[in-house]
Amino acid sequence: MPNPQITVLEALSTPGNPAKPNDDRYGHNEAAAFVIDGATGLGDRQYIDASGSDAAWIAARFADGFTKHITRDTAISDIARTVSLDAKREFLGNHPEVPRYAWPLSAFAMLHATRTGFRFYGLGDSCVFLLNTDGTAGIHMAIPDAFTREQAHAQSHIARTGGITKNGGALGNTQTLEALRRHRETQNTPGGIWTLGLVPEAADHLVSEDLPIEGKAHAIVCSDGFADLVVLYQAYDAASLVRTALDKGLSPMIEELRRFERETDPEGLRYPRFKQSDDTTAILVELTA
Q1: What pLDDT, on the 0 to 100 scale, is given for residue 2?
Q2: How far is 151 from 158, CA to CA, in rounded Å?
Q3: Total count of domains within the chain
Q4: What are the residues whose beta carbons fall under 8 Å from the beta carbon of 49, sequence distance 6 or more?
Q5: Is residue 235 situated within a structural domain?
Q6: How far apart are CA 174 and CA 119, in angstroms?
Q7: C-alpha torsion 155→158→159→160, nearest 10
Q8: Pairwise CA distance, residues 101 & 136, whole Å
């Protein structure tokens, strides 16, 4: 029997703010399609000159490692561990004094085609929307309540400040920044959220599940920025999101997302979030079992 196939139909990545680096990356090869979402830096400065931000640098490191080394037979955890070790040596080797809240890290979501089927892998709040041939659809992600929790925290910030851009924004507000830094320091520690970054042990905590696909299916692998069309703005459900991408393409959907962010609710009063516009990345794929 032929191996299961991933066919990339379209891929698109746009920065939330055109004046700032896009901290998202995506990649694909014969055996995988994935999105990596670098977490907004919380440090007082940038430590790595390449890529425009430390978050973009770590996302690019993992995107390059995954693209080059993932095969149908690869243990994804082995690749994640190796890339993390190399990144740790470079970053902390040159900057051992960096506070933990400023360590670069990233969420990711991946579809992996093995020799017998498909599997989801992820950490953090990137996700996969899967539409099966029979019309059933769902979302696959490492942290099922991630969006609900972030919206609640953003709502508290907005209630205190009056809006996303007020009082210096999330990173300019002392109370919010301190809370974000405390949360960031718990990541990649026992009891905290695991992400791709400078802690190789995160490779032991990858969330994965088999995706039982018969015949053909379609999916969108995306960062949380694109997922907001479903989980925040509720413009789609999982099935209609994938169907619309197949019918119209990803570009008009991102334009629709930007209208929600910049015109419908620029201050987050109706749709609470920390940033007016987020980096947005999506890969539309066809899966053939």
Answers
A1: 80
A2: 10
A3: 1
A4: none
A5: yes
A6: 41
A7: 130
A8: 40
